[in-house]
Amino acid sequence: MKLIENYVARSEQLLNHVDWIPYVASISGMVRVLAGGVEIAAALAFVYLKLAYNLVNYGRAQFAHTLKQGYTYSLHGVANIIRGAIAIHPWWNLILIAHDWRLGRYNYPQETVPSGVYPLATAHKFA
């Protein structure tokens, strides 16, 4: 899972810079909206499969822990959809420059936050 998170984080950081260019950002915005939808669907599938696996193998499912993981990934997907919706509109996308300089992004647990940047949220580390 960490390998996938690292790849997705690098891809999103690359898209962040493309989001700053009017009109070109429309393409990255569409990609981000699609990726956000996929991330939400994957989070739901992950929760279902993990709960079923734990129920079958251990006789109990860790509902709270698993739901928290799925919720965190779903929120990240929602954040990608919102950012993509802003990036799609030419000149609105310039808001994202200020956002990236001061707020950063919804970070994965292993990402370091640059000084002076206040992330929207940092995903929790799960055991």
Number of helices: 4
Low-confidence stretches: none
Q: What percentage of the residues does DSSP assign to strands (E)?
A: under 5%
pLDDT averaged over residues: 79
Shape: elongated
Summarize the topology.
Blueprint (H helix, E strand, L loop, with lengths): L1 H17 L5 H35 L4 H26 L6 H8 L3 E2 L13 E2 L5
Parallel strand pairs: 1-2
Question: How would you describe this protein?
Answer:
By secondary structure, the chain is mostly helical. The protein has one domain (2-122). It is built from 4 helices and 2 strands. The chain has a two-stranded parallel sheet with strand order 1-2. The protein is elongated, with a radius of gyration of 16 Å. The relative contact order is 0.17.
Task: Tell me briefly what this model is.
With about 130 residues, the protein is mainly alpha-helical. It is about 70% helix and about 5% strand. Strands 1-2 form a two-stranded parallel ribbon.
Key words describing this protein structure:
127 residues; elongated; mainly alpha; two-stranded parallel sheet
